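Quick start: read one record
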Amino acid sequence: MKPLAPPSLEDIRAAANRIKAYVLRTPLIRLNVDVAQTEIYLKMENLQPIGAFKVRPAANAILGAAQASIADGVYTASSGNMGQGVAYIAGKLGRSATVFLPKDAAATKVASLKRLGARIRFMEDEAWWQVLADHGDPATRGMFIHPVASQDVIAGDATIGLEIHEELPDVDTVLVPFGGGGLSTGIASALRAAGSNARVLGAESDHCAPLTAALAAGGPVAVPITPCFISGIGVGHVLDEMWPLIQQLITGTVVASPKEIVATIRLLIERHRVIAEGSGAAPVAAAMAGRAGKGKIVCVISGGNLNEDYLIDILRGNTPSPAPVTSV
């Protein structure tokens, strides 16, 4: 398999043009909170048609494929948001979509996948992870769309970085939720290609922080996962094939606690009427705590697909309990 490389500015602009009919150019708004010597901005990817940024990489990967490759449909392995992106674009093109989900996938994301017409296969974590590692499942027909480690996927993610640079060229730091690394390396690629010196930091939760551990160890290492309501970030270890790109492009990490993330979700609702899922709120929590330094900081609100029962708990001032295992 060819090693992954940062997409060029030409690749990113081509991706932006390819996907423009299916995605929103999301707003960049100033956070309505005073933080000394700091301007915090929110890149509102929760406003995308599926409620998350993943529609961008899904669109670029599927629309850029040969028609013969998607004749039998498309499939992916996802915690939910990439699955929604793939199902949404496949539906627009009249193709079938299958999504492999971990059994504890968020109920909101499962419901959305059903609404989008996706075939859902729930899997144990080890089997689900193996599909990612193998880039597909030999028993499944169609084109596999890797949610992270794909040149087309990273280029689709990078379109967010290009928009940030165009609207705030003097940004100092961009905080990006770190799930598998596609979003963070894509945004970093775009900023670098456009001539920006902004730092890109991966935002994690301390219930499971594989990037922080990998940077400390000098390479991917297995980390424990504490049960938590937060999905989309916090896998057991960084993908080996993503590590060279991460080393090249990502400056470091910031880590927030689930309690801080809950408070931030509530604050975003109160101040902006914005719903962010846990992974999307992590960058804002870290920025408000001062862990990203001063200056102009952009926080990518990667998604807003928050379970309704979690939302009720959070508005009541409680930290939600981890989701029960989802059954078919």
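The CA atoms of residues 201 and 237 lie 17 Å apart.
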